[in-house]
Write a structure and sequence with these properties.
With 126 residues, the chain is mainly α. Helix content is 51%, strand content 6%. The protein has 3 helices and 4 strands.
């Protein structure tokens, strides 16, 4: 009976805490982690004898699982270059436009260090 309680209460709590505290670096990493936790929790949800604890714990853990998963997904979708904490520089070259106002002229392609930079390119000055 003690093992049953541990499987029903402690294991889902550890899985939820793992999902809540995770810091995935990409959406794929988040998805793999979420699916692994879902695969571990699903048999507990279906097979465990919830009459030992409370039938509503099973649904409470399921709701918390999706809340923690949504929170993790939100953390991953906020991983963009605009939210970086590192120093960075944005360069714009334009022809014409209003002096003193940016992005009002025609954009002009330019080379930096002998190459055209595209979105998320890294340039290290030597």
């Amino acid at each position: 009976m003690l093992l049953q309680l541990a499987i029903q209460l402690i294991l889902p709590s550890i899985l939820l805490l793992s999902l809540w505290r995770a810091c995935p670096k990409s959406r794929l990493e988040w998805l793999i982690h979420f699916l692994a936790i879902l695969a571990a929790y699903f048999p507990i949800f279906l097979i465990a004898r919830w009459d030992f604890t409370c039938y509503y714990f099973r649904y409470g853990f399921a709701v918390l699982l999706f809340v923690a998963g949504f929170r993790g997904y939100r953390k991953v979708t906020n991983l963009t270059a605009a939210n970086t904490s590192q120093p960075h520089l944005h360069l714009h070259v334009e022809r014409g436009g209003d002096p003193g106002k940016i992005l009002t002229g025609e954009g002009v392609p330019f080379k930096l260090g002998g190459r055209f930079l595209v979105r998320n390119s890294l340039f290290t000055g030597n």
